[in-house]
């Protein structure tokens, strides 16, 4: 089970942090990450981090967002220099070693211009 928090309303250029906490069989989790979905768009990858710390970012957020992970059950997405096009519902995600995904509830981020 994944519990996400930290969304809200922020002005362009501002910063916000999203957090996600996993519970249950956390020892089975390999990758944790964040996806987002804007109205009318498909859900897209934002950032992921593996158990051994390897990260992957969407080109649109590189240099602005940073994903981190501690004790294999919490992940944080630090978002800086936010843009209106970052507005979306953000979803926490994890995958086990078989690649099976789990999703948390979405949290809304709105960036005003």
List the helices and strands and how they pair.
Blueprint: E1 2-5, E2 8-11, E3 16-22, E4 29-37, E5 44-49, E6 55-57, E7 65-70, E8 74-79, E9 88-96, E10 101-112
Unreliable segments of 5+ consecutive residues: none
Count of runs of 4 or more consecutive helical residues? 0
Largest sheet: 6 strands, mixed
Number of strands: 10
Look at the structure and give the mean pLDDT: 94
H/E order of the elements?
EEEEEEEEEE
Order the strands across the largest sheet as they lie in space. 2-10-9-4-5-6
> What percent of the residues sit in helical stretches (DSSP H or I)?
under 10%
SSE-based structural type: mainly beta
Shape: globular
Strand portion, in percent? over 45%
End-to-end gap:
34 Å
User: What is the alpha-carbon Rg in Å?
Assistant: 13 Å
Regarding quaternary structure, what we see is single chain
């Amino acid at each position: 089970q994944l519990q996400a928090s930290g969304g809200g309303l922020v002005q362009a250029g501002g910063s916000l942090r999203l957090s996600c906490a996993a519970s249950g069989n956390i020892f089975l989790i390999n990758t944790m990450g964040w996806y987002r979905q804007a109205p009318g768009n498909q859900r897209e990858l934002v950032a992921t981090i593996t158990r051994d710390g390897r990260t992957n970012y969407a080109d649109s957020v590189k240099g602005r967002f940073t994903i981190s992970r501690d004790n294999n059950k919490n992940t944080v997405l630090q978002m800086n220099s936010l843009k209106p096009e970052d507005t979306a519902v953000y979803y926490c995600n994890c995958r086990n070693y078989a690649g099976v995904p789990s999703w948390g509830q979405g949290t809304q981020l709105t960036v005003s211009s």
